[in-house]
C-alpha cells in the first residue's frame, strides 16, 4: 500500500461518487492515523472533510451462525419435522447440537411450534417464520434495525453489539491532486538565485500552531498566595519585617513575649532546640552591639517579681533558659524585636512578615514540622479591641472572607486574645483562620514603649488559605519531597 495520504487521494480520485470513508477502509490503521492524514491533506487544501460519528449494530459470532443456519428454535422445529413419528428428546442434542438443543427447545415450546408426547417431541405448527433470523439479516445488511425494541432484545440476548464507528465524509478541495507536492518551508537564497521560487509551492504559515512549550520557572503556590498577602499589606500601609533569623534565643522567642519559662509551649514537645551550639550570647543591640542590659533586667523582673502594675509569674527566672537557642516557633519573635526598636522612637507603625516557623509536632495530612506564618502588628496610641476587630474585618475582606466571628482565646503575650473564624462558603462551615490579640503591658512597657501606646497583633498560616485555594487536602502534596512539579508549574495565579 502506498502511504496513507496518497492512498486516500487515490481512493477519492477513483471513486464514482464521493466516498464516506470509514476507518474500515483501512483495517490496519486506526482512526487517529486516518484523521491526522486527513488533517495534513486538508491543511494543503487538497481535500475538505467532516467527521461522522455513528453507533452501529454488529452481529456476534453466534448471531452470524443464526443468519447462516437459522435460529436454535427453528433448528429444533426442523429436526422435529424431519422425524416421521416424533423425535426422541434424548436424540435432540445429537441432531441439532447441544447448545441449540438447550436454548431452542424451550423457545420452540413457547412459540407453540412443538409439543411433547411422552418422551418424544412432535410438530405443533404447520409452518413457522424464523423471526430472529430475519431480524439479524436486516441488521447484517443495514447495521441497525427500524424497531428499537427488537434491537434492545437482541442486545440482551447477546446476539448484537453496538459499536462506535467513526467515518469521514471527504470532498475534493480546491487544490485536489493525486500527487502530494513537496512544499517549501523557507524562501532561501538558493531559491531566489536560481529563480526556482517562481514554480515552487510554499507551505502556508500556520498561525494557529501552539508552539513548543517554553521551559520556564514557576512560582510555588505558597509563594503566589504570599505575593497576594504582601500586596494586601502594602496596600494597607504596612512595612515588611526582616525575617531572616530562623534561629532565635529563647529570649526573643519567649521571654520578651512574657511566656513563662515553664510554659508547655516551650517544652520539648513543641520547640526544636539547637544542640550545637546550645546557648546564645546575651542579647545585644543590633545596631551598636551594646548588651541590652536594661531590657534584659526588665524582662527578668516582670517575670520574676512583676512590674508595670503586673504581679508577674513569681518564679525564679533563669538566664540560661533565656539564652537557649531554638528554631523560632513563631514570627512573633521578630515582631518583639521590631517593637523593641520602635520603643526608642515611639510612633504609630504597621509591620508585617510572612516566613517560616518550626514546631516539633507529629507530621500528618494537615501538619508539618514547619509552616509559614503570616503576621501583622499595628502600634498606635489609644487603640482599642474594637479597632482590632474592625481592622480584621477590613483585612480579611480583602481576601474574600466577609463573615468573621471572634472567640476569646489565650496567648501569654496578649490580653484580650481572640481566635478568628471565617465562614467558608465552599466548605459550608466556620473555619479557624487566625489568632490575634492586644500585646500585654508586661511585654510593651518592658521594652520602653509609652503606656498609652497599644499594639495589636495577629497571625495565621499561609498553608491554610493556600490549601483551600488550590483544593489540596494533604499538606505533603504542597510542601516537601512529595510535591509534584507539574502541580507547581500548571497552577493558576491567585487573586483573592
Ligand atoms: N504567635 C501567634 C501564633 O503563633 C500569632 C499571634 C501573633 C497572636 C501576634 C497574637 C498576636 O499563632
UniProtKB/TrEMBL annotation:
It catalyses: tRNA(Phe) + L-phenylalanine + ATP = L-phenylalanyl-tRNA(Phe) + AMP + diphosphate + H(+). One of its GO terms (molecular function) is metal ion binding. Its cofactor is Mg(2+). Pfam families: PheRS_DBD3, tRNA-synt_2d. Residues 224-480 form the Aminoacyl-transfer RNA synthetases class-II family profile domain. Its main location: cytoplasm. Gene3D superfamilies: 1.10.10.2320, 1.10.10.2330, 3.30.1370.240, Bira Bifunctional Protein, Domain 2. It is found in: Cytoplasm. Keywords: Aminoacyl-tRNA synthetase, ATP-binding, Cytoplasm, Ligase, Magnesium, Metal-binding, Nucleotide-binding, Protein biosynthesis. InterPro entries: aa-tRNA-synth_II, aa-tRNA-synth_II/BPL/LPL, Phe-tRNA-synth_IIc_asu, Phenylalanyl-tRNA_Synthase, PheRS_DBD3. Its EC number is 6.1.1.20. GO terms for cellular component: cytosol; phenylalanine-tRNA ligase complex. Belongs to the class-II aminoacyl-tRNA synthetase family. Phe-tRNA synthetase alpha subunit type 2 subfamily. NCBIfam families: pheS, PRK04172.1. This is Phenylalanine--tRNA ligase alpha subunit. It comes from Terfezia boudieri ATCC MYA-4762.
Amino acid at each position: 500500500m502506498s502511504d496513507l495520504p496518497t492512498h486516500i487521494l487515490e481512493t477519492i480520485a477513483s471513486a464514482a461518487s464521493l466516498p464516506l470513508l470509514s476507518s474500515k477502509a483501512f483495517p490496519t490503521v486506526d482512526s487517529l492515523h486516518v484523521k491526522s492524514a486527513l488533517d495534513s491533506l486538508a491543511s494543503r487544501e487538497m481535500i475538505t472533510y467532516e467527521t461522522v460519528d455513528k453507533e452501529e449494530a454488529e452481529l456476534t459470532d453466534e448471531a452470524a451462525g443464526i443468519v447462516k443456519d437459522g435460529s436454535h428454535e427453528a433448528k429444533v422445529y426442523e429436526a422435529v419435522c424431519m422425524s416421521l413419528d416424533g423425535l426422541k428428546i434424548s436424540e435432540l442434542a445429537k441432531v441439532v447440537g447441544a447448545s441449540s438443543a438447550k436454548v431452542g427447545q424451550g423457545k420452540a415450546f413457547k412459540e407453540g411450534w412443538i409439543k411433547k408426547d411422552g418422551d418424544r417431541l412432535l410438530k405443533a405448527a404447520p409452518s413457522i417464520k424464523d423471526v430472529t433470523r430475519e431480524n439479524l439479516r436486516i441488521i447484517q445488511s443495514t447495521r441497525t434495525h427500524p424497531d428499537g425494541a427488537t434491537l434492545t432484545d437482541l442486545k440482551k440476548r447477546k446476539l448484537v453489539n453496538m459499536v462506535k464507528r467513526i467515518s469521514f465524509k471527504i470532498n475534493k478541495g480546491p487544490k485536489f491532486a493525486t500527487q502530494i507536492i513537496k512544499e517549501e518551508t523557507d524562501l532561501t537564497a538558493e531559491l531566489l538565485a536560481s529563480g526556482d521560487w517562481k514554480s515552487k509551492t510554499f507551505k502556508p504559515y500556520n498561525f494557529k500552531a501552539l508552539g513548543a512549550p517554553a521551559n520556564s520557572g514557576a512560582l510555588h503556590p505558597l509563594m503566589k498566595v504570599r505575593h497576594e498577602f504582601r500586596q494586601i499589606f502594602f496596600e494597607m500601609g504596612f512595612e515588611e519585617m526582616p525575617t531572616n533569623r530562623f534561629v532565635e534565643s529563647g529570649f526573643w522567642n519567649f521571654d520578651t513575649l512574657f511566656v513563662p519559662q515553664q510554659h508547655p509551649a516551650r517544652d520539648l514537645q513543641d520547640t526544636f532546640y539547637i544542640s550545637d551550639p546550645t546557648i546564645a550570647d546575651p542579647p545585644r543591640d543590633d545596631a551598636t552591639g551594646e548588651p541590652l542590659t536594661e531590657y534584659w533586667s526588665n524582662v527578668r523582673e516582670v517575670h520574676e517579681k512583676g512590674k508595670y502594675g503586673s504581679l508577674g509569674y513569681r518564679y525564679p527566672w533563669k538566664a540560661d533558659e533565656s539564652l537557649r537557642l531554638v528554631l523560632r516557633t513563631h514570627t512573633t519573635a521578630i515582631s518583639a524585636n521590631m517593637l523593641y526598636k520602635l520603643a526608642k522612637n515611639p510612633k504609630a507603625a504597621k509591620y508585617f512578615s510572612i516566613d517560616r516557623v518550626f514546631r516539633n509536632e507529629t507530621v500528618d495530612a494537615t501538619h508539618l514540622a514547619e509552616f509559614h506564618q503570616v503576621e501583622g502588628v499595628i502600634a498606635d496610641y489609644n487603640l482599642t479591641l474594637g479597632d482590632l476587630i474592625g481592622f480584621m474585618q477590613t483585612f480579611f475582606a480583602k481576601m474574600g472572607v466577609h463573615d468573621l466571628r471572634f472567640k476569646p482565646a489565650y496567648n501569654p503575650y496578649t490580653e484580650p486574645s481572640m481566635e478568628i473564624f471565617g465562614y467558608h462558603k465552599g466548605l459550608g462551615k466556620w473555619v479557624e483562620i487566625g489568632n490575634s490579640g492586644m500585646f500585654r503591658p508586661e511585654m510593651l512597657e518592658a521594652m520602653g514603649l509609652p503606656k498609652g501606646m497599644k499594639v495589636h497583633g495577629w497571625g495565621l498560616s499561609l498553608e491554610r488559605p493556600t490549601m483551600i485555594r488550590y483544593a489540596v487536602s494533604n499538606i505533603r502534596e504542597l510542601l516537601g519531597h512529595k510535591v509534584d512539579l507539574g502541580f507547581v508549574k500548571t497552577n493558576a495565579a491567585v487573586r483573592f
